[in-house]
Design brief:
- This protein is an alpha/beta fold.
- Helix content is about 50%, strand content about 10%.
- The protein is built from 31 helices and 19 strands.
- An eight-stranded mixed beta sheet has the order 12-11-10-13-14-15-16-17, sandwiched between helices. It has a six-stranded mixed beta sheet with strand order 1-2-3-4-6-9, with helices on both faces. Strands 5-7-8 form a three-stranded mixed beta sheet.
- The protein starts with 5 loop residues before the first strand and ends in an 11-residue tail after the last helix.
Amino acid sequence: MSYVNFKVEVDGDGIALVTWDAPGRAMNVIDLKSIEELGAIIETVATDANIKGAVITSGKDAFCAGADLTMLEVMGREFADTTKRLGPEAANQLLFDESRKWSLLIRRAETSGKPWVAAINGTALGGGFELTLACHHRVAADNPKARVGLPEVKVGLFPGAGGTQRVPRMLAPADALQFLLKGDQIPIARAKQLKLVDNVVPQADLITTAKAWIKAGGKGVAPWDVDGFKLPGGPVYSKAGMMVFPAANALYRKETFDNYPAARAIMQCVYEGLQVPFDTGLRVESRWFAKILRSPEAAAMIRSLFVSMGELNKGARRPAGIAPSKLKKIGIIGAGFMGASIGYVTAQAGMEVVLIDRDQESADKGKAQSDTLISGQIKRGRATQADKDALLARITATSDYGALKDCDLVVEAVFEDRKVKGETIAKAEAVIGKDIIFASNTSTLPITSLAEMSKRSDKFIGIHFFSPVDRMMLVEIILGKETGDAALATAIDYVRAIRKTPIVVNDSRGFYANRCVLRYIAEGQSMLLEGVPAPMIENVARMAGMPVGPLSLYDEVALDLGLKITKATEADLGPDAVDQQQKALMIEMVEKRQRFGRKNGKGFYDYPAEKGKKRLWPGISELIPATVDPDTLDITEMKQRFLAVQAVEAARTVEDGVITDVREADVGSILGFGFAPFTGGTLSYIDMMGTKTFVTLCDKLAAKHGPRFAPPKLLRDMAEKGDTFYGRFAPGAQKIAAE
């Protein structure tokens, strides 16, 4: 029998080699056709007396990337349709049956009586890795770049094909829970240490070694299907078990604040599943999986962190009809922290870099930062000395603007001063070709006004990086009024080349990300000035789903930079444009007490000179009114303030035409400033709550705390009509227009 996604060859020893090689895809993914075909193959292996066992491998560089999550979106629509037609009971049964097909299929292989060996030739993730766990033996190629893992929790799901049952029967409960809840992708060597992989061999020996295990008498029985099997950590209700699960539950609450239903489901599946027979445990897992699929958090996270992010990473906003950019050499002007970091990620992507600063010493210092960063990767086992030598060889540090002559793109990252940037633009344009794109990495100055200093405003664009550049995955591309399609296409090509996610926004003060995140920071200061204790502000913000508290984040941004932005805003827009109390607080901290934030070890927090934990500065109490009694504060309202103040600003950016694609608002808010990922992003947060409910909440907060919460006209109109952002504005539209 022939298959579309698989090739099956049975050798003279009766061993079937099953090669997964989906046509037209860079990686194998689990979809309905793959499930159908692999099911037929498993039945053939199980029932054909001439087949003694099977080895499954991949014809691609990777083994399997996991499930095609768009399949789950279709399943969600079928659930909704069935609910309307046949009622909730029939819909629930449909979802349960459909969602466990892969789980039952690989369990069939596991219990077929024939030995199955996974020959893991490359990265195996999600359901693909669960398939290998259901095999009776796992051999992996010695590939330092390959990773295995169950990352579903990062998109609001959890391993639903036996991952929560097999892993805790292979690892001690504490290790299993950490592996499942973190969703990390681990190297093959680490998987071997954990015994999730049985053997690691050279790539050339992979299939031979896998077949040899079957020839040597390898049994087609999983350990948990053998009478007398004992759990690695002992029974749940034992002294050892009680040392793990109560502590794990406390740690789960501390890390997630119970915001992530999928993480809770993992805890439940492991706890309940280890107390029952394996097949019952699989059924428990499938029940929880079907429940999580129905959760709004999973729907929002899948849409934003998988579907939308995947589309943006593939260049969804790239103008049509523009030939791909051939970017080989990038010029970066400004070798300070930002410029040097941009140079590092550019060289890491294989491009040559010309790193320019005012003198050779400054340029060399910038290049040295790349040395430091790549050396850190070597220490962590993520790079080699050869990688370091090659990367540094691609970076040319100089003070000579003439070196920009052959560059395909120039990015300036000089000091946030209009005059300095103007001088930089003039020097660069005197050297570079007339068709070369010039990009400004600015977080405060409008791109249109900077483009006025250029002789080629159609070739001028903003490329806003986030700090630290090597770790932050978002890049904000800003269009000036005159920016042309060629500039946009080149900017997107560059951002994709350095393996980051681009969002495209129109010009405005603060663009998109800073407009929203500065509201979050300001809300923390407002609470502080109201007398809310600083520790409570920080903790409640994290309870709301933010990665760090607003005071801690302000320290990272730098308090002196914040004061500079405040003064610049006031100078341009007048005193009513800034909060005068917050300005006074910053003047006291920055100008009078020299507290600039983390960069000088003093901000809202004190930072120890040597390695140690930062602590809130005790002197905060001297600068604010007497604190209010924490027991009188409404925690729910505080959490709502932190999220609503950002979401309502995001809605304003839509109304203002800064955001023109709802996908970018959501993906940008999560990747750019950590907006509560379980919500799916700023606009998904509003949609999840319901526009009418959100407007009511904002009106309540505005009446109590001020006009910063007041909904814009667009939101009121949407609330009146019962619209959602993803309903009213079709994702992928190039322009949003408020009606």
